[in-house]
Design goal:
Layout (H helix, E strand, L loop, with lengths): L16 H13 L2 H13 L1 H28 L6 H9 L1 H33 L7 E5 L2 E4 H19 L2 H29 L15 H9 L2 H4 L5 H4 L8 H29 L2 H6 L3 H10 L2 H35 L18 H13 L4 H33 L12 H17 L11 H25 L1 H12 L9
Antiparallel strand pairs: 1-2
Helix pairs in contact: 1-7, 1-11, 1-14, 2-3, 2-11, 3-8, 3-11, 3-16, 3-17, 4-5, 4-16, 5-6, 5-14, 5-15, 5-16, 5-18, 6-7, 6-14, 6-15, 7-11, 7-13, 7-14, 11-13, 13-14, 14-15, 16-17, 16-18
């Protein structure tokens, strides 16, 4: 194993408070709010959509509290990988981390499709050069080229160091916040409460409309879990890691709520129905100028970048954590001697992201839905780990200790099970047959790699590596 992982370095703590906050917040806001805000308002009414995000945000806050306590108690690379190992052992740790890795891969793949899609709004009809058709979608050469170019750029940024990735994240997140504040201010002064009618869904009823939006809410908040993945690179007192994680979640709740409010103040139901991108149209209406709508689209592109960047970091660290503990092939645990980044894991993420545009838009929707199931499964594992460790190791040092831990833990487990249930047959958001095949295929690939690695390195090796990690020791002594 030592010869195969030819690295002489280990991850270093270089991320400051602002870096970590930008990493998590930028990951959560992404691009979805640009596309989906109009449909949220139409489904639940203006106040109903805001209510859905407040309720959904509360669910994420509860799950986030378990992450916050565990991340501050065990600030090692891999996050969920470490918690689930300590609480439930070797195989549970693999399942948890491999499941959330699918979620991270699905996001970086989706962003490679989102970028060329949004560019079409700035440069209509730029997509030329018919390649093939997948699931009714014409894949065009220039469209693919934009997605691949974005993927390679994001891969390079992450390859040359987490400092560079963090700097990009801060700058782009500030751009999003500036445009968002400009939009909310304009909407509050120029908008009308009359356009917010109906406040709640007439067709679906109050609760029916709210539920239609709530099922989408948890997936809009995916990203705060990137903090635990990069915990070994965060240069903060351990208690502050938990605090920053919770602040990022609360900021995202406010962000989505205010974006919905601003859009509802500017566009009436008829305008919402005619709009393909409600938030840019609302921004244009607030300032009565086309430049304002284009500025909001640029903010959406910025959201793509922040989400893309954050999940490159999260996904590569999850793969690295599995590899250096002997649960995946050892070459994936290689660190760059100068940049101290998990280079091969980043290259794997980059390859998967670069392939995504070749499959068109619809195929990536399947992947994202399957990836969502992986993420909520990991949430359940983390919630269970929180409960188990509270009972088994009550004296464990917890710099960020959650009050009423038994209640928070029980609710987190229950809510995580509810989230998983949303993907099962009978739910409005149930996975389709092809999405189940994609999820099963990913898990099967992981199990094959796990079995090979277990046979090659042995469980004893993994246990030794994990114990060193939990003790804060250099996992690669003598190199």
């Amino acid at each position: 194993m030592n010869n195969e992982t030819s690295t002489e370095t280990h991850l270093t703590r270089v991320l400051a408070r602002k870096d970590v906050l930008a990493l998590a917040f930028g990951a959560m806001i992404g691009w979805g709010w640009i596309v989906l805000t109009g449909s949220w308002i139409q489904s639940a009414g203006s106040l109903g959509a805001i209510t859905a995000f407040l309720i959904g945000g509360l669910i994420i806050v509860l799950v986030g509290l378990t992450y916050a306590e565990l991340a501050s108690a065990m600030p090692q690379v891999g996050g969920e990988h470490v918690y689930s190992y300590r609480a439930m052992g070797h195989f549970a740790s693999f399942l948890c981390t491999w499941a959330i890795t699918l979620g991270y891969v699905s996001v970086v793949a989706f962003e490679a499709v989102a970028l060329p899609t949004v560019v079409e709004h700035l440069f209509p009809n730029y997509a030329v050069g018919q390649m093939w058709n997948i699931a009714g979608w014409d894949v065009k050469a220039t469209w693919v080229a934009v997605g691949v170019a974005g993927s390679v750029l994001m891969m390079w940024i992450n390859y040359i160091g987490v400092r560079t990735a963090a700097l990009v994240q801060k700058v782009v997140t500030l751009l999003i916040l500036a445009v968002g504040i400009l939009f909310i201010t304009g909407a509050l002064f120029q908008g009308s409460t009359e356009t917010m009618q109906p406040l709640f869904s007439v067709e679906e009823g109050v609760m029916g409309g709210i539920m239609m939006v709530i099922i989408m809410v948890p997936f809009m908040f995916v990203g705060f879990d990137v903090i635990p993945q990069a915990a070994e690179e965060i240069n903060l007192p351990f208690r502050e890691i938990g605090r920053v994680l919770m602040i990022s979640v609360i900021l995202a709740v406010f962000w989505y709520s205010f974006i919905i409010l601003g859009t509802a103040l500017m566009l009436d139901p008829e305008a919402l129905g005619a709009s393909s991108l409600a938030v840019p149209d609302a921004m244009q209406a607030a300032f009565q100028a086309p430049w304002a709508g284009n500025l909001m689209i640029l903010a959406g592109i910025a959201g793509i970048i922040t989400s893309w960047n954050a999940f490159y970091i999260g996904g590569s660290r999850a793969i690295y954590a599995l590899a250096h503990s002997g649960m995946l092939p050892a070459f994936l645990a290689k660190l760059h001697p100068k940049h101290r980044t998990p280079t091969n894991a980043i290259l794997v993420m980059g390859a998967l992201s670069s392939l995504a545009p070749f499959f068109g838009r619809q195929a990536l929707v399947w992947l994202v839905v399957a990836g969502g199931l992986g993420i909520v499964i990991a949430y359940l594992f983390v919630a269970l780990s929180f409960v188990v460790l509270r009972r088994r190791e009550p004296e464990m040092t917890r710099p960020f200790r959650v009050r009423r831990g038994k209640t928070v833990g029980a609710l987190s487990v229950i809510l995580s099970v509810v989230l998983i249930g949303m993907y099962l047959p009978g739910s409005p958001s149930a996975l389709s047959t092809i999405e189940w095949f994609m999820f099963a295929g990913w898990m099967a690939i992981g199990l094959v790699l796990y079995a090979w690695s277990r046979n090659r390195y042995g469980v004893a090796y993994s246990d030794t590596m994990m114990k060193r990690e939990l003790a804060g020791a250099d996992p690669y002594p003598g190199r």
